[in-house]
C-alpha cells in the first residue's frame, strides 16, 4: 500500500486508497440500456460504493452483453464487436481516471442501439486544452495515484494515448467517435461501427435496412428506406450482383438478406 502511495503511517489511507477499496462511499457508474427512445429502459445497473476496479469490470460485462456476439462462418465462430471493445475500455478508463471525485455524481453510461454515450463528471484538468486532450500531446492525470495503479495492472499507458486508441479503432468506419466538452463534464460518444463499403448513400441505406433485420421483401425495404419500388429493386439487383447481399425465393416469395448467422 505504501509503494502504491495509497497509505502512509501518518495519515493512513488516502482518497485513492478509499476509491480502490471494496467498500467505500464514492459514487460509481450508472449504466442504462435504452430501447428505441430514452423513455424505454431495457436494463439498468448502478455500481456504487465498490472498488473502481469492480466498477470497470462490471461496465465491461454490460458492454459485452449487448455489443458483442458470435457469427458462424463455415466451421468457425468469430467474435463480432458492433462497437470496438478496446474503444469502450479506453473511454471508461478515461472517465474513471479523469473524473472529479468530489462531485457527488456517477459516471453515466447510456447504451443505445446505434451508440454508447459515456459522461464523466468534471471538466478538463486545469491547463489542458481540448486540442491537447484530443491529440494526446499532453497527459495530465487528475488522479495520478489511481493512474499508477491502472498502469501497473497494464490497463493504461502513461502517455495519454487513450483518445488516439479510441480513434484508431474507428479508422475503417464511416462514423467516428465524438468528444463533447462542458463546464462540468466530458461526454464521449462511441457509434456502432459502419464499415466503409464503398457504397453510395442510397445503396448504403438499402444495405443497412437488411443488415439490421432478417429476410425482407423489396416492398419491406422500400417502406423502410422511403424509396420507390422501382428504385429499390434496381439497387437490390446491383447489391446482389456485387455480392453485398443474398436473395432467395422467387416471385412474391423473393426475399433479400445479409448473410449473417448470429
Note the main attributes of this structure:
single chain, alpha+beta, six-stranded mixed sheet, 9 helices, 12 strands
Q: What would you note in describing this structure?
A:
The protein is α+β, with helices and mostly antiparallel strands and 262 residues long. Helix content is 35%, strand content 22%. The strands form four sheets. Strands 4-3-7-8-10-9 form a six-stranded mixed β-sheet, covered by helices on one side. A hairpin with a 2-residue loop joins β5 and β6. α2 packs antiparallel against α3 (85-98). The chain is elongated. The chain starts with 6 loop residues before the first strand and ends in a 5-residue tail after the last strand.
Outline of the structure:
This protein is an alpha+beta fold. Helices cover 35% and strands 22% of the residues.
User: Ends: how far apart?
Assistant: 46 Å
Radius of gyration over all CA atoms, rounded = 23 Å
Order of helices and strands: EEHEEHEEHEEHHHEEHHHEE
Number of helices: 9
* Class derived from helix and strand content: alpha+beta
Helix content range of the residues, please?
25-40%
Q: Describe the biggest sheet?
A: 6 strands, mixed
For the biggest β-sheet, the strand order reads: 4-3-7-8-10-9
- The proportion of residues in beta strands is 15-25%
Q: Would you tell me the overall average pLDDT?
A: 88
Count the beta strands: 12
Low-confidence stretches: none
Globular, elongated, flat, extended or rod-shaped: what is the shape? Answer: elongated
